[in-house]
């Protein structure tokens, strides 16, 4: 049984088209390719998220080192994220009978520049007619339509992650596709925490066990049983094992949140200072100093002394410090009793 993505040895750089034949909600499955090969895929190979059985994708086939003689699908890109170019062969049919080799490997259609990489963004505008705009983490402003995520509405200030491509109807502008709600990351549950040492372990949904240190959450302690969204990486000190690079947010029932990190739940704060270039700092009611960028609330400027509420996450560029994931101005929800971690 697998415990996570296996190391792989590349055998070629071209992607080929395949069809998702199996998918487990824990984040892994199998893709069938036209030449008859069946390849394992883990959601970390595509930046997170889930695939749907029957979905067409493009990926690079590599030998699966953990399972000699078998294959893994790397650098996977969903078909919807690619430029609308014709393939060198007709549409791929999903086989229903015995799988037989089907000729040479077919190259992929080339994606738009920048397609395939997932980026975080903040919803800045949303219309009830089913479209709006995002401020993407790399500075681009992207149009988004409800068809990019299925049904429902987005809310200004909401954090999402998307694939950004050129807008085919507006040359020189950008469009968001394959939208997923929430920040980038993978979900897991805290199964062990040693407060005196400031470290513990997270059981990931795909079966991996990842080491986590309190520096990955900006200080404080974690609560055993807490469900987290994290970014993982190979553990440099323990080859073959995993560690948590950063804790993005905690997913929990607010009624149960009486200890552990104060992420996800809005905290009352006061603006300390604001630079007209679009950033500044707030101080939460429990005394923490938090960096704020205007993308966390859309646009405009804040005023020193203004009352706001913020959802706090670790500052990815400044380990050990905090930043606002979203901010609500006067009149927004201000949580009471938000306390400092630790």
Q: Biggest sheet, strands in spatial order? A: 2-3-4-6-5
Distance between the amino and carboxyl termini: 38 Å
User: Counting H and I runs of at least 4 residues, what is the number of helices?
Assistant: 0
CATH class of the largest domain: Mainly Beta
CATH topology heading of the largest domain: OB fold (Dihydrolipoamide Acetyltransferase, E2P)
Give the total of beta strands: 21
Instruction: Using the 3D structure, state the CATH architecture of the largest domain.
Output: Beta Barrel
The number of domains is: 4
Low-confidence segments, given as residue ranges, are 5-12, 83-115, 252-262, 332-337
Give me the secondary-structure category: mainly beta
Mean pLDDT across the residues is 75
The amount of beta strand, in percent, is 35-45%
Tell the overall outline: flat
- Any idea what the radius of gyration is? 22 Å
CATH superfamily of the largest domain: Nucleic acid-binding proteins
Task: Please estimate the helix content.
Answer: under 10%
SSE order, as H and E? Answer: EEEEEEEEEEEEEEEEEEEEE
Describe the structure.
Residues 17-79, 120-182, 187-250, 269-330 form the Cold-shock domain. The chain is mainly beta. The chain has four domains: 15-78, OB fold (Dihydrolipoamide Acetyltransferase, E2P) (Beta Barrel), CATH 2.40.50; 118-181, Nucleic acid-binding proteins (OB fold (Dihydrolipoamide Acetyltransferase, E2P), Beta Barrel), CATH 2.40.50; 186-250, OB fold (Dihydrolipoamide Acetyltransferase, E2P); 267-329, OB fold (Dihydrolipoamide Acetyltransferase, E2P). 0% of the residues lie in helices and 44% in strands. It is built from no helices and 21 strands. It has strands at 8-10, 16-24, 28-32, 38-42, 56-64, 71-78, 118-127, 131-136, 141-145, 159-166, 174-181, 186-194, 199-204, 209-213, 227-234, 242-251, 267-275, 279-284, 289-293, 307-314, 322-328. A five-stranded mixed β-barrel has the order 2-3-4-6-5. A five-stranded mixed β-barrel has the order 7-8-9-11-10. The model is unreliable at 5-12, 83-115, 252-262 and 332-337 (pLDDT under 50).
């Amino acid at each position: 049984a697998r415990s996570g993505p296996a190391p792989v040895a590349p055998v070629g750089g071209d992607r080929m088209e395949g069809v998702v034949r199996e998918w487990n909600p824990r984040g892994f499955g199998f893709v069938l390719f036209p030449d008859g090969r069946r390849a394992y895929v883990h959601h970390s190979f595509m930046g997170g998220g889930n695939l749907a059985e029957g979905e067409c994708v493009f990926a690079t086939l590599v030998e699966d080192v953990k399972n000699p003689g078998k294959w893994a699908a790397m650098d996977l890109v969903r078909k919807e994220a690619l430029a609308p170019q014709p393939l060198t062969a007709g549409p791929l049919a999903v086989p229903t009978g015995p799988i037989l080799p089907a000729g040479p490997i077919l190259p992929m259609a080339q994606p738009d520049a920048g397609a395939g990489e997932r980026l975080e963004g903040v919803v800045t505008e949303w219309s009830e007619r089913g479209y709006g705009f995002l401020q993407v983490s790399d500075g681009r402003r992207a149009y988004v339509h409800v068809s990019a995520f299925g049904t429902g509405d987005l809310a200004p200030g909401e954090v999402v992650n998307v694939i950004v491509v050129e807008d085919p109807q507006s040359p020189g502008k950008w469009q968001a596709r394959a939208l997923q709600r929430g920040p980038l990351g993978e979900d897991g549950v805290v199964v062990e925490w040693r407060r005196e040492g400031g470290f513990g372990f997270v059981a990931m949904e795909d079966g991996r066990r990842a080491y986590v240190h309190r520096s990955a959450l900006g200080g404080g302690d974690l609560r055993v049983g807490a469900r987290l969204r994290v970014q993982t990486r190979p553990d440099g000190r323990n080859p073959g094992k995993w560690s948590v690079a950063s804790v993005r947010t905690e997913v929990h029932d607010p009624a149960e949140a009486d200890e552990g990190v104060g992420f996800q739940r809005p905290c009352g704060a006061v603006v300390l200072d604001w630079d007209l270039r679009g950033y500044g700092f707030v101080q939460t009611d429990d005394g923490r100093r938090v960096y704020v960028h205007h993308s966390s609330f859309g646009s405009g400027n804040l005023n020193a002394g203004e009352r706001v509420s913020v959802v706090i996450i670790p500052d990815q560029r400044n380990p050990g410090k905090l930043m606002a994931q979203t901010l609500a101005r006067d009149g927004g929800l201000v949580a009471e009793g938000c306390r400092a971690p630790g």
